[in-house]
Amino acid sequence: MASVLVTGSTQGLGRLSAQWLLDRGHMVILHARSTDRMDAVDTLLAQGCTAVVGDFGDQSAIHQVADQVNALGPLDAVIHNAGVVDGPDLVTINVVAPYILTALINRPSRLIYLSSNDHFGGVGDIDRLGLDGGVPTATYADTKWFLTAFAMAMSIRWPDTVCSAVDPGWVPTRMGGVYAPDDLSQGAVTQAWLAVGQESTAYMSGHYWYHMRPRQPHHGTQDHGCHEALIRSLASFTGVSLP
């Protein structure tokens, strides 16, 4: 039985991943943006989940979530599922929050970061993130490019931790829209399986996954120089050093 944190788990892929894990006897920590969202996971809480609360658009709240998680004891895996497609908090939620949580949560044995096929259209220009005090100009695709790069970086920086990026496909969630053609269940299963799977393939670190199969990410996301520049910029911006 594993203990897994799933961020952004009140709906969509996060909720389905949490349910998949629960159905297989694992312990799940849910995450909700606010207490108002807790009603949406009543059925999961009744099945034995615990929950943490914090708005990832606010750096202080991200720190509070890390504290809440650490107070619950050691984790086996974190699924960094929370994300938005646009808005003023795009960079903070999609890139900064996973960085801070990775740095501050007591290190689990597996880390899974939710990417997107859209990352292939992203631009790996750190200036677009606005981490140097400039105005962020990053698109959703850019943020997923950098999150994929961060997952690849962590697989090198922490070789004893299995780090993965997952493309769930264009699935019919609130973000994807009702006409999205991909299989929602497959997107949810892949990230949940990477958190707890016992097959040898589930322990393959530094891979980008789509529907249970590894694929090649954008070649730029595997550049070591980019990795180091991204981590330095995030550390300077947040004041949080990555162990």
What order do the helices and strands come in, and which of them pair?
Layout: E1 3-6, H1 12-23, E2 27-32, H2 42-46, E3 50-53, H3 59-71, E4 77-80, H4 90-104, E5 110-114, H5 140-157, E6 162-167, H6 184-196, E7 207-210, E8 213-215, H7 224-238
Q: How would you briefly describe this protein structure?
A:
Helix content is 37%, strand content 15%. It has 243 residues and is α/β, with parallel strands linked by helices. The two termini are 27 Å apart.
List its traits.
single chain, 243 residues, 8 strands, 15% strand
Write up what this structure looks like.
- The chain has 243 residues and is an alpha/beta fold.
- The chain is built from seven helices and eight strands; from the N terminus they run E-H-E-H-E-H-E-H-E-H-E-H-E-E-H.
- Strands 3-2-1-4-5-6-7-8 form an eight-stranded mixed sheet, with helices on both faces.
- The model has no long low-confidence stretch (mean pLDDT 93).
Largest sheet: 8 strands, mixed
Order of helices and strands: EHEHEHEHEHEHEEH
Structural class estimated from helices and strands: alpha/beta
Helix % is 25-40%
